[in-house]
């Protein structure tokens, strides 16, 4: 039974980890080549050709492989009634075996939406069209789980990219994301999108706390806070344990008192009826004392007193080997 | 025939001359000689003066090893050359996975009962961390960047693995100097701390006798690593690698069900990691990287951090005594133990206590702030990492 429980637990953990890895992939930037901009020097594929592309980011801090996931521009995949094979038929598979699809934490990979899958594993089986609304979706390897989607607006300016940029709330410091059109000089395939407003931590500390006073105050407060909480817990816990031990002692003493009272009653009755013998009376008191001392003595001193006794077995004659004697013939 | 022999001799001569260009003698610089002398000095300190031999011997030999001059010809032998054996060992330092393993061993070896029995000692461990932030302020004033200043300041925690962990993340270029400095000052605890303790305490304070600690139940011992982990890492998740492993090691020990694992973590595994860590940290002090003005400043700042930490521990105990009733006062000589040099700092408290009163044994009382210092410095490192990484 235990084995099955453990196996089920391992399975759940494994599935959770896998799902977590895939969900870290986000569509980060999309560029749609516009035939109107003929002299645009954009991001070139392995053949030196400039076209539309989709950048995917691993938003986690650990390495994940995007192989076996799917990209599509077909809205029909959103139909929940479709089976997995029907959906997969509408998608472009990211094949296995290309090291470029194995993304380290916070890294990017760019896929070319040119319909030429024979060129390399970074080329998709569909094209993006300028001047129209383009739906793009990223699906997990099962073809059912939608990982991310974006709709590139029809009014995307020629030469501009549609990018997901982070924004820090100056008050709450929370980071949120929004999709914006980035001008040609800020288009960044395989790189973090320009326009990020998240400030650099070190520069921030340097600028706002040049003498380190704020750092010292905040950090010492946190260190003290942690250890004060630990102190409070163990102080309280120790106090509770101490109280419980005292209560147990009180209970034990009460019990002894009750039995002593009963003995007194018996003794009194015995004395009155003269039916009690002296030996029985002494035995009852001894028993009560023994019980009392036994309860009082719940913590042993831990000191062992083994007295050494000398015996003839310890004499040197017995302990040492006799000197061998040579027998001359 | 003669022509052939001449050409063979030429070939041998040419190859021999070529070989000579690879030798240490052909590539040696004065800086290498100085560093080799420093390594030899560390070994001498460890063997002759018994200063932390388990650390200083691997570091000392590592310094010598790292400063053996050789020709940069892609032989894959140097610490900083990809695929060399030393480089593979060095990854544990560079990527910061040796320090958590050492913390696992520390957890498996440490008995927190002195701290559980007298939890107010935790506050002393927290106060001593002021050394870190005092040094941070000084380092900033000397012109270091905040991340570098944090890496240097952590020396004040007197905790080598923590110093390596934090500097590998925040200021990897200074890590060699910071690590050597941290371990050097840990070894020099018996030299640095006593005079601070004597200067800051009166004779009457030195004679304060503390009550024997109460017995700590098994339940408390088991609860300590679990509660400690939850409280500290919920507040400072960035301290997770160090604190997680520290409390994990302690739980292995205190659960009494995993004695075998605790023994391995505290003995064999810890020894292996200490050897590799010491050796590679020593190796990383190549003269070109190490003999700089920054290194001298780091040593000066490290000394400041260490002294501030020791002093703030002692002074905080004096402050606590103002509020504590008679009979519950704490001997300020255990304040220095708030730095996490376990158990050297506690031993110094005991020695100084015995000098003042030959019957006043402070060792068990000093172990409380000493182990609290380990937790405090790991929390401080987590805070700095969270703010500056």
Would you mind describing this structure in some detail?
The complex is a heterodimer of chains A (329) and B (389). Chain A has two domains: 2-198, Immunoglobulin-like (Sandwich); 213-297. In chain A, 36% of the residues lie in helices and 17% in strands. Chain A contains six helices and eleven strands. In chain A, the strands form three sheets. Chain A has a five-stranded antiparallel sheet. In chain A, a hairpin with a 6-residue loop joins strand 10 and strand 11. The model of chain A is unreliable at 13-20 (pLDDT under 50). Chain B is mainly α and 389 residues long. Chain B has one domain (84-388). Chain B is 73% helix and 0% strand. Chain B has 22 helices and no strands. The longest helix of chain B has 31 residues, at 293-323. Chain B is elongated, with a radius of gyration of 24 Å. The termini of chain B are far apart. The relative contact order of chain B is 0.18. Chains A and B meet through helix 3 and helix 4 of A and helix 7, helix 8, helix 9, helix 10 and helix 15 of B.
Which strand order does the major sheet of chain A show? 7-2-1-10-11
Sequence stretches where pLDDT stays below 50 over 5 or more residues of chain A: 13-20
Q: What is the 3D form of chain B? A: elongated
Largest sheet of chain B: none
Count of alpha/pi helices of chain B: 22
Count of distinct structural domains of chain B = 1
Query: Whole-number radius of gyration of chain A?
Result: 41 Å
Helix/strand order of chain B, N-terminal first: HHHHHHHHHHHHHHHHHHHHHH
Described by its quaternary structure, the protein is heterodimer
Percent of residues in helices of chain B comes to over 70%
The assigned structural class of chain A equals alpha+beta
Strand content of chain A: 15-25%
Number of domains of chain A: 2
Average pLDDT for all residues of chain A: 81
Number of separate helices of chain A: 6
The number of E-state strands of chain A comes to: 11
Rg on CA atoms of chain B, Å: 24 Å
């Amino acid at each position: 039974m235990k084995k099955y429980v453990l196996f089920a637990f391992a399975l759940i953990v494994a599935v959770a980890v896998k799902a977590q890895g895939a969900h870290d992939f986000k569509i980060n930037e999309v560029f749609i080549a516009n035939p109107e901009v003929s002299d645009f020097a954009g991001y070139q594929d392995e053949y030196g050709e400039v076209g539309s592309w989709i950048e995917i980011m691993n938003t986690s801090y650990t390495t994940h492989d995007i192989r076996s996931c799917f990209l599509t521009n077909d809205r029909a995949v959103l139909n929940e009634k479709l089976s997995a094979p029907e959906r997969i038929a509408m998608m472009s598979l990211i094949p296995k075996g290309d090291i470029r699809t194995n993304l380290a934490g916070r890294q990017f990979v760019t896929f070319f939406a040119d319909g030429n899958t024979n060129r390399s594993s970074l080329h998709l089986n569909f094209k993006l069209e300028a001047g129209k609304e383009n739906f793009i979706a990223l699906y997990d390897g099962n073809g059912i789980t939608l990982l991310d989607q974006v709709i590139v607006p029809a009014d995307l300016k020629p030469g501009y990219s549609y990018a997901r940029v982070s924004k820090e709330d100056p008050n709450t410091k929370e980071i949120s994301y929004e999709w914006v059109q980035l001008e040609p000089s800020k288009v960044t395939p395989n790189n973090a999108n320009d326009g990020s407003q998240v400030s650099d931590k070190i520069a921030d500390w340097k600028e706002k706390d040049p003498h380190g006073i704020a750092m010292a105050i905040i950090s010492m407060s946190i260190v003290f806070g942690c250890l004060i909480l630990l102190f409070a817990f163990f102080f309280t816990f120790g106090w509770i344990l101490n109280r419980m031990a005292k209560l147990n002692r009180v209970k034990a003493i009460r019990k002894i008192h009750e039995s002593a009272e009963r003995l007194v009653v018996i003794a009194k009755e015995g004395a009155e009826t003269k039916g009690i013998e002296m030996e029985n009376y002494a035995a009852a008191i001894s028993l009560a004392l023994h019980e009392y001392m036994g309860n009082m003595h719940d913590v042993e001193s831990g000191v062992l007193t083994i007295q050494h006794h000398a015996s003839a077995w310890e004499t040197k004659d017995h302990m040492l080997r006799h000197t061998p004697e040579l027998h001359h013939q | 025939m003669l022509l052939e022999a001449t050409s063979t001799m030429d070939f041998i001569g040419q190859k021999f001359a070529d070989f000579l260009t690879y030798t240490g003698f052909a590539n040696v610089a004065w800086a290498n000689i100085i560093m080799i002398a420093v390594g030899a000095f560390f070994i001498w300190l460890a063997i002759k003066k018994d200063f932390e031999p388990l650390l200083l011997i691997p570091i000392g030999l590592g310094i010598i090893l790292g400063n053996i001059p050789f020709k940069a010809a892609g032989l894959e032998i140097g610490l900083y050359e990809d695929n060399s054996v030393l480089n593979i060992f060095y990854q544990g330092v560079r990527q910061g996975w040796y320090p958590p393993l050492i913390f696992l061993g520390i957890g498996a070896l440490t008995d927190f009962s002195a701290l559980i029995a007298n939890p107010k000692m935790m506050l002393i461990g927290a106060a001593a961390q002021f050394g870190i932030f005092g040094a941070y302020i000084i380092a900033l004033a000397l012109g270091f960047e905040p991340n570098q200043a944090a890496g240097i300041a952590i020396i004040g925690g007197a905790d080598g693995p923590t110093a390596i962990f934090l500097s590998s993340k925040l200021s990897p270029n200074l890590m060699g100097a910071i690590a050597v400095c941290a371990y050097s000052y840990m070894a020099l605890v018996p030299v640095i701390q006593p005079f601070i303790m004597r200067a800051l305490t009166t004779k009457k304070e030195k004679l304060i006798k503390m009550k024997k600690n109460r017995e700590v139940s098994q339940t408390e011992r088991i609860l300590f690593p679990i509660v400690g982990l939850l409280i500290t890492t919920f507040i400072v998740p960035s301290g997770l690698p160090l604190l997680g492993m520290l409390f994990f090691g302690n739980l292995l020990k205190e659960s009494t069900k995993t004695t075998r694992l605790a023994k391995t973590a505290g003995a064999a595994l810890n020894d292996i990691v200490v050897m590799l860590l010491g050796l590679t940290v020593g190796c990383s002090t190549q003269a070109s990287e190490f003999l700089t003005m920054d290194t001298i400043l780091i040593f000066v700042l490290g000394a400041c951090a260490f002294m501030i930490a020791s002093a703030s521990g002692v002074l905080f105990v004096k402050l606590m005594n103002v509020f504590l009733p008679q009979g519950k006062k704490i001997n300020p000589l255990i304040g220095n133990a708030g730095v996490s040099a376990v158990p050297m700092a506690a031993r110094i408290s005991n020695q100084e206590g015995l000098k003042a009163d030959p019957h006043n044994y402070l060792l068990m009382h000093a172990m409380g702030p000493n182990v609290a210092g380990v937790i405090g410095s790991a929390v401080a490192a987590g805070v700095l990492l969270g703010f500056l990484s």
